[in-house]
Design a protein that fits this description.
This protein is an alpha/beta fold. The protein has helices at 38-49, 79-94, 141-160, 175-180, 200-213, 239-252; strands spanning 10-12, 15-17, 22-23, 54-61, 99-104, 123-124, 128-130, 133-134, 137-138, 166-172, 219-227.
């Protein structure tokens, strides 16, 4: 085991990790009021203490009115939430760990009744939770611009409070993946259409983040073939298609 490269340090641009063990993001809903608290601090500090090379936090929502989908999820916006996250970051660093937040918008997974403003419906590319099932509203250009800005601001704030990188949640049938997936993206403007056109929203987000965090700060991007709405769904059906899909994201700054 000790000869495994898993335990060797690695440099990822400016990010030095003491090993290649990366903790997957896991929503814990431990944060009443959407503010990271002592329980969150202790939870992440324990992972750093026990030699996780890079911690990816639970999904933490960006500052858009419809970003959140669940109770007690910590936010990556607002003074109190950012101060809570800073305590997490400082505690992880004190144990010698590295940490990146997973920046999240749930899109049409959101239902009315969810905090912070319970009257706000889900926002998504075409107002669909999945093919044939409507939920919430289809985003107009202003909504799109606001969400892009919210991701950029969240990344800038994350960097400012000491996070070592950011991860964009583009997976599992949430907002960004709803743009990727033809099943939920039926737009006839430039954000819909073929696989490359369906990456446009994510590309705008990554470019906006890159413009705010500078050339060197690592931007991680999580995507998935499967959707919570359809485990058999596929974005790419061949390595060539996967390259077609990923190239614009890499060129944008992932
Ligand atoms: C409790 C729980 C919460 C999760 N929350 C998130 C999340 O916030 N963001 C995310 O991208 N994946 C989330 N996942 C998925 C995990 O990151 C991981 O992909 C999944 O557990 C599969 O890995 P495994 O086979 O090792 O369990 C969650 C998984 C669990 C078990």
């Amino acid at each position: 085991m000790s000869n495994s490269p898993l335990f060797d340090p690695i440099e990822l641009g400016p990010l030095s990790l003491k090993n290649r063990i990366v903790m997957a993001p896991m929503t814990r809903t431990f944060s009443p009021g959407n503010v990271p608290n002592d329980l969150n601090v202790a939870y992440y500090a324990r992972r750093a203490e026990n030699e996780v090379g890079l911690i990816i936090t639970e999904g933490t929502t960006v500052g858009h009115k419809a970003a959140n989908g669940y109770a007690r999820v910590p936010f990556m916006h607002g003074e109190e939430s950012l101060a809570g996250w800073k305590k997490v970051v400082d505690a992880v660093h004190a144990k010698g760990g590295k940490i990146a937040p997973q920046l999240w918008h749930v899109g049409s997974v959101r239902k009315e009744g969810i905090e912070p403003d319970t009257s706000v419906p889900g926002h998504s590319p075409s107002g669909l939770f999945k093919p044939g099932r409507e939920n919430g509203v289809a985003m107009n250009q202003q909504d799109i611009d606001e969400v892009v800005e919210a991701f950029a601001q969240a990344a800038a704030d994350a960097k400012a409070i000491g996070f070592d990188a950011v991860e964009v949640h583009g997976a599992h049938g949430y907002l960004i993946d709803q743009f990727f997936w033809q099943g939920t993206n039926q737009r006839d403007d430039s954000y819909g259409g073929d696989l490359v056109s369906r990456t446009k929203f994510a590309v705008e987000i990554v470019k906006a983040i890159r413009a705010r965090v500078g050339a060197d700060f690592p931007i991680i991007f999580r995507f998935s073939q499967w959707k919570q709405q359809d485990y058999d769904a596929r974005l790419a059906n061949s390595p060539e298609e996967l390259k077609t899909f990923l190239t614009p994201l890499v060129e944008a700054g992932v």
